[in-house]
């Protein structure tokens, strides 16, 4: 008996659509890809769950899994082959060489790099199979911040990092917000940005993530670091300097920036070679006045003579300002406070009113100038002591009782032990 010829089933056959529909539904309901959430502990003190706060990683020790917390890093504990901060590491490495020198291919000093993971946007779930670990749909590799971080507020600062060559042997710097608001040291600061592989305008205003508002008003203790941050943008007033100059920070190439600030009154750019009046409070510290525009309100009596350039040097809203400029040195433009706040940071408003009846206090205030011979990091939970790195300059200082001083560093005034500093 002949069997009927085999014809391809019609595409209008409803059973075909049902099969395809089932496959489509199964595909759409397939389980999402899950990634193991990092769980990091400090290799030195054992502090757990430091993955979401700033910590320091050695990419060479323990197959790249060697991490320490900020406090241990600041206490100079380092990794297994770490020789010190900044520019002191290599001289120490050479001093400790055995007789006859190091053998060929001997490891050079390791460099620890700041790391921090942003928290996942999706809920964490526990894996169903041992070992039971936390999982997330957000790939941790896409959420890791690595490079330069502000030593004041701990913001991720690869887009604009103000490097100090003196504090902490050159391993020290600030984000743009902290510099604008006066939370920085007294040394010249060079602005740099991480050099990316792709050629892109440094003034691109499209963020990869929203910038984090800064709420800290003092040097954050090494153990207080639970606020998540996201990468800020390079300021619109900044652009990469032309030329071969570069800086190596956190084992990464950074290029120097040049700033052309716009006067907030006449709206004309202020060249880096010109000084400007800078207010730390107006517009969150992003407020500058060129010399010509500041003299006009004083002449027109919009600013009282005693509050003008030869007096308290106040802005139109009554805030004391300092004068800022840039100096060209070593292939970069370094920001320098030419004239500090009249009366310094320690001066209170009520004291200012009293001094109005007497004479103007000096720029930068009164008191001793001290150099930190050793870093000082207060114990956890101590809020009334001043934290500072080695090489810091502390101003407006006063001897309290022979054992303790009071002074100002990075715009903050607090107590600190006398045996950590020496007079300048």
Automatic annotation (TrEMBL):
<protein>
    <recommendedName>
        <fullName>ZZ-type domain-containing protein</fullName>
    </recommendedName>
</protein>
<feature type="compositionally biased region" description="Polar residues">
    <location>
        <begin position="198"/>
        <end position="214"/>
    </location>
</feature>
<dbReference type="InterPro" id="IPR036028">
    <property type="entry name" value="SH3-like_dom_sf"/>
</dbReference>
<dbReference type="InterPro" id="IPR043145">
    <property type="entry name" value="Znf_ZZ_sf"/>
</dbReference>
<keyword id="KW-0863">Zinc-finger</keyword>
<dbReference type="InterPro" id="IPR000433">
    <property type="entry name" value="Znf_ZZ"/>
</dbReference>
<dbReference type="InterPro" id="IPR052256">
    <property type="entry name" value="E3_ubiquitin-ligase_CHFR"/>
</dbReference>
<keyword id="KW-0862">Zinc</keyword>
<keyword id="KW-0479">Metal-binding</keyword>
<feature type="compositionally biased region" description="Basic and acidic residues">
    <location>
        <begin position="215"/>
        <end position="226"/>
    </location>
</feature>
<dbReference type="GO" id="GO:0008270">
    <property type="term" value="F:zinc ion binding"/>
</dbReference>
<dbReference type="Pfam" id="PF00569">
    <property type="entry name" value="ZZ"/>
</dbReference>
<dbReference type="GO" id="GO:0016567">
    <property type="term" value="P:protein ubiquitination"/>
</dbReference>
<feature type="region of interest" description="Disordered">
    <location>
        <begin position="196"/>
        <end position="237"/>
    </location>
</feature>
<feature type="region of interest" description="Disordered">
    <location>
        <begin position="1"/>
        <end position="29"/>
    </location>
</feature>
<feature type="domain" description="ZZ-type">
    <location>
        <begin position="257"/>
        <end position="305"/>
    </location>
</feature>
<dbReference type="GO" id="GO:0005634">
    <property type="term" value="C:nucleus"/>
</dbReference>
<dbReference type="GO" id="GO:0004842">
    <property type="term" value="F:ubiquitin-protein transferase activity"/>
</dbReference>
<dbReference type="GO" id="GO:0006511">
    <property type="term" value="P:ubiquitin-dependent protein catabolic process"/>
</dbReference>
């Amino acid at each position: 008996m002949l069997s009927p010829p085999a014809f391809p089933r019609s595409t209008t056959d409803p059973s075909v659509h049902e099969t395809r529909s089932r496959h489509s539904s199964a595909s759409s309901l397939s389980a999402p890809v899950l990634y193991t959430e990092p769980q990091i502990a400090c290799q030195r003190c054992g502090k757990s769950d430091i993955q979401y706060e700033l910590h320091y990683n050695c990419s060479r020790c323990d197959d790249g899994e060697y991490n320490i917390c900020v406090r241990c890093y600041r206490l100079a504990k380092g990794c297994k082959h770490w020789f010190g901060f900044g520019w002191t590491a290599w001289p120490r490495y050479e001093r400790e060489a055995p007789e006859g020198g190091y053998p060929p291919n001997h490891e050079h000093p390791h460099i620890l790099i700041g790391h921090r993971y942003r928290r996942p946007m999706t809920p964490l779930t526990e894996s169903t199979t041992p070992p039971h670990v936390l999982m997330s749909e957000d790939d941790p590799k896409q959420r890791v911040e690595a490079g330069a971080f502000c030593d004041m507020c701990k913001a991720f600062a690869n887009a604009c990092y103000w490097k100090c060559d003196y504090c902490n042997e050159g391993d020290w710097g600030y984000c743009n917000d902290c510099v604008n608001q006066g939370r920085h040291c007294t040394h010249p600061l060079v602005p740099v940005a991480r050099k990316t592989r792709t050629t892109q305008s440094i003034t691109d205003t499209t963020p990869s993530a929203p910038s984090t508002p800064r709420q800290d008003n003092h040097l954050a203790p090494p153990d207080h670091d639970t606020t998540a941050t996201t990468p800020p943008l390079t300021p619109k007033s900044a652009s990469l300097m032309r030329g071969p100059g570069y800086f190596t920070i956190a084992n990464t190439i950074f290029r120097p920036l040049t700033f052309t600030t716009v006067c907030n009154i006449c709206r004309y750019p202020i060249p880096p070679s010109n000084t400007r009046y800078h207010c730390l409070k107006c517009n969150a510290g992003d407020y500058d006045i060129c010399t010509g525009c500041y003299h006009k309100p004083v002449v027109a009596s919009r600013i009282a003579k005693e509050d003008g350039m030869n007096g308290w040097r106040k802005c139109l809203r009554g805030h004391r300002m300092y004068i800022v400029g840039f100096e060209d040195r070593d292939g970069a433009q370094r920001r320098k406070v030419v004239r500090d706040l009249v009366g310094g940071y320690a001066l209170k408003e009520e004291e200012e009113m009293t001094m109005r009846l007497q004479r103007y206090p000096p720029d930068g205030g009164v008191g001793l100038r001290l150099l930190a011979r050793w870093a000082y990091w207060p114990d956890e939970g101590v809020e009334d002591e001043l934290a500072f790195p080695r090489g810091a300059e502390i101003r407006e200082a006063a001897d309290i009782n022979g054992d303790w001083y009071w002074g100002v560093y990075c715009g903050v005034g607090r107590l600190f032990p006398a045996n950590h500093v020496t007079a300048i």
